[in-house]
Amino acid sequence: MTSTTDQVGGLDDLAATTLLRFATAGSVDDGKSTLVGRLLHDSKSVLTDQMEAVEAVSAQRGQEAPDLALLTDGLRAEREQGITIDVAYRYFATARRRFILADTPGHVQYTRNMVTGASTADLAVVLVDARNGVIEQTRRHAAVAALLRVPHVVLAVNKMDLVGYQESVFAAIAEEFTAYASDLGVPEITAIPISALAGDNVVEPSANMDWYGGPTVLEHLETVPVSHDLTACPARFPVQYVIRPQSAEHPDYRGYAGQIASGVLRVGEAVTVLPSGRTSVIEGIDALGESVDIAWAPQSVTVRLKDDIDISRGDLIAPSAKAPATTQDVVATVCHVADQPLSVGARVLLKHTTRTVKAIVKEIPSRLTLDDLSQHPEPGQLVANDIGLVVVRTAEPLALDAYADSRRTGSFLLIDPADGTTLAAGMAGESFASQAETAVQPDDEGWDF
């Protein structure tokens, strides 16, 4: 068995991991894919055969220089149309840090994919075309970044070469965006003037903008402080699978497998199983085929309890002293991502961690107006790319944390029960017990909760 001292030392190593997850966003043709391609190329993170393929395609198009956007536009439809459709993930590293980047689409139709790319990001790079300034799609991406509580936002004012590298153009855009994002609650905003096509201030400082004294994009990505210490949050262990081999070798084995969403689990710790509320004590933890005394997020482990409790997929194991409350009334801000509207009274499935339950949309109190950040009351429904407040009643209790406390266990999806389409991504706020007794009237289709 691994010693507790060695395992606690592993927590320090985990906290010190220099990995940055970041997403790029912006409107169509703002240069996101070109920026990502420039980062990869100038940081020497492109393989020779990849570069040769880009050069060949660029030559076929009659372009004199390689089109670095092709390094991320991986889908055939993307290459043919010259736009980003899917979220393109790329992995690269410098001497100072490792990176996982998500190049998200800029077209309004694919804004939903930004939610996917930014949901786990520590930083978002929002590009703005210096010729166009802050537009509605820029404001929408800033709102999504704020909604997902991305802690760091970089405003990259791109195509400065097309406005003569004028400081006044950059300053005006930076001031407008910073004021808007600050009102949304974005905690940190860094503005950088760049030309992704020419390479100005992407990896190397620009000789054309001597009036700018801040970091390049890569320098900021390498030095921005990022905390990955999921162990500082209360432990949350969503059960994914119940293991009962019932073999002659292990006749009484019963374990609960899954990935620790946050916090630390220890053998001997008193825990509560939710939503049932039954309590027990952790008897053992198995990781990679060995018994350990301690495990932490995001490890995948099997937990064994002292008591034989009815536990199934979707249940949540948490320390009894810091167990979340359960509720059937969920108040949340959602980003609607489906083409079909989300209306009051809609029957949906709510997926939270490994648990999926029936639910009904009781209210849509407001929809966010992106122009002035005002709330449009009682819109009745949300359509694609809308951001709004919803009230959902679930058929079974959920152990939800507030999204402000945990991005992992405070988020959920609303799903169409007919075809499995994802309708909305939700971020839970407070749950109001005052309306817990106001149940939806039962019907004859099994939605009687």
Written description of the protein model:
The chain is α+β, with helices and mostly antiparallel strands. It has 3 domains: about 5-10 and about 230-320, Elongation Factor Tu (Ef-tu), domain 3; about 20-225, 3-Layer(aba) Sandwich (Rossmann fold); about 325-435, Elongation Factor Tu (Ef-tu), domain 3, CATH 2.40.30. The chain has 8 helices and 25 strands. Strands 7, 8, 9, 11, 12, 13, 15 and 16 form an 8-stranded antiparallel beta sheet that branches. A 6-stranded mixed beta sheet has the order 2-3-1-4-5-6, with helices on both faces. It has a 6-stranded antiparallel β-barrel with strand order 17-23-20-19-24-25. It starts with a helix and ends in a 21-residue tail after the last strand. Keywords: ATP-binding, GTP-binding, Nucleotide-binding, Nucleotidyltransferase, Transferase. Pfam families: GTP-eEF1A_C, GTP_EFTU.
